[in-house]
Design brief:
Layout lengths: L1 H25 L3 H59 L6 E5 L6 E3 L6 E2 L4 E6 L3 E2 L4 E3 L4 E10 L8 E7 L2 E8 L8 E10 L4 E6 L5 E3 L6 E9 L1
Antiparallel strand pairs: 1-4, 1-13, 2-12, 3-11, 5-6, 6-11, 7-10, 7-13, 8-9, 8-11
Bound molecules: calcium ion.
Length: 229
């Protein structure tokens, strides 16, 4: 509406100037000249108001754009807050740690085939993802995990100790000690890996190898969820 108002004022101003010029050339009537002068002033004022209105509308448009941008940012922030709430307040808790023997001492192995080690003495098992009856950790939460295991041999000549951390039957990392002329060797290894639901992680004693443990608990298997994915 302001543009129409401005346009009308411009037309009036143009008409006024035209008539004023005609009057100046052909008519010296003072009253008519005064009347035309007032009309010109009014037209100029209307032009000025129209321009101001135009500027205000432009500013309003910019403010509207800014408001829409802020609304978009707010919606993005709200989504991020909801995601953070989900990741923190609702974070699943998965952690376990176990060692090989509940009591006594002696060798485990050798076996004719690669065999999952059953860590019987459980220190912790939040989430119950680790099964001490099988030695297998089965993921019930999709995410990034940390696993670590340790191993010991005890003055054995061959067969000696080869132990692998295994995921779904695939060897990931290992500890190896096949030199029998030294004694009481320990070793450890660890991984950080992503797991899908149902993925199985366990420590496997390789065929024709053995490990030793007693109530000092040298052989351990531990793991925990770092974050969900
Ligand atoms: Ca050795």
């Amino acid at each position: 509406m302001h543009f129409r108002m401005k346009d009308m004022a411009v037309l009036m101003l143009a008409l006024c100037c035209c008539l004023s010029g005609t009057q100046a050339q052909g008519n010296n009537d003072n009253q008519k000249t005064c009347c035309l002068s007032d009309t010109c002033s009014l037209a100029k004022e209307l032009v000025s108001i129209g321009e101001k209105l135009g500027t205000m509308v432009e500013k309003q448009g910019t403010m509207g754009d800014n408001l829409r941008l802020m609304e978009t940012r707010l919606q993005t922030s709200e989504k991020e807050v909801e995601e953070l709430k989900r990741l923190t307040a609702g974070q699943p808790k998965v952690a376990f740690s176990a060692t090989l023997r509940e009591s006594g001492s002696g060798d485990t192995g050798p076996f004719k085939t690669p065999t999952p080690l059953q860590y019987k003495k459980v220190f912790s098992n939040t989430g119950n993802s680790y099964n001490p009856a099988t030695g297998v950790f089965a993921a019930t939460v999709k995410g990034m995990y940390y696993f670590r295991f340790t191993m010991m041999n005890n003055l054995n000549s061959t067969p000696n100790s080869v132990v692998c951390l295994t995921k779904n039957g695939q060897r990931l990392v290992s500890v190896w000690d096949t030199a029998g002329n030294d004694s009481h060797d320990s070793g450890s290894n660890a991984v950080v890996i992503p797991l899908e639901l149902g993925d199985q992680v366990y420590v496997e004693l390789q065929a024709n190898r053995l490990i030793f443990d007693d109530t000092m608990f040298y052989n351990t298997f531990s793991g925990f969820l770092l974050f969900t994915m």
